[in-house]
Amino acid sequence: MTLYKNKYRIESTRCKNWDYASNGYYFVTICTHNREYFFGEVEGNEMYLSAIGEIAAQEWHKTAQIRPNVELDEWIVMPNHMHGIIIIKNQPIETFSRIEIETFHRNVSTSRLKSDSLGAIIGQFKSVCTKRIREAGFSSFGWQTRFYDHIIREQTSLENIRKYIVNNPMKWELDRHNATNLYM
After folding, report:
1. d(C-alpha 13, C-alpha 139), whole Å
2. Which CATH number is 13-175 given?
C-alpha cells in the first residue's frame, strides 16, 4: 500500500502494461458489497436466482447486445458474486490463437478509464444493475468497489476457466464465502 494525501491507498491489481481496451479474453469476478447474498441461493448444486439475481443476469446478457465490440463466453451468477468471460474485439481478430503477444506490452496511460475497455464495460454494467435494482425497491444493494480480472492468454486456460464457471454451483459448499462455512 502507498500513501496518497496522507491516507493509505490500495494499489491497482491491473497489469501495468496492458491495454484493457485491446482484443482479448478476460475472466472477471464481480462481488456484492460485503459479499452479501443478494443474487439467490444454491440448492442441490443448482443456482436459483432472486429478483436481484435476475436483474444482474439480464443486464449481463445485454452487455454483448449493446456493445458490438463485446462477446460473452461462459458466465454464471452466484449468491454473492458473478463470474464471466468477456471477449473484447475492438480490432478484427480471427481466432483465439491470433491474439498476438505484442498487444500485452502496449504503453498505457493509467490516469483515465478508456471507453470500450474492460473497466468501462464492468463499470457501466454495475451502474445500470444498481439503478434497476434500487428502482425495484432493493435500496440496500451494493457492489464491492473493485472487480477481479484475469487476462486469458491460452486455449488451455480458457477451457479450465470455462469448467470452473460451469462447476461453480457444485463447489458452492466448499466456497469460503459461503455463509455455512464461516463458523467452521
Report:
1. 29
2. 3.30.70.1290
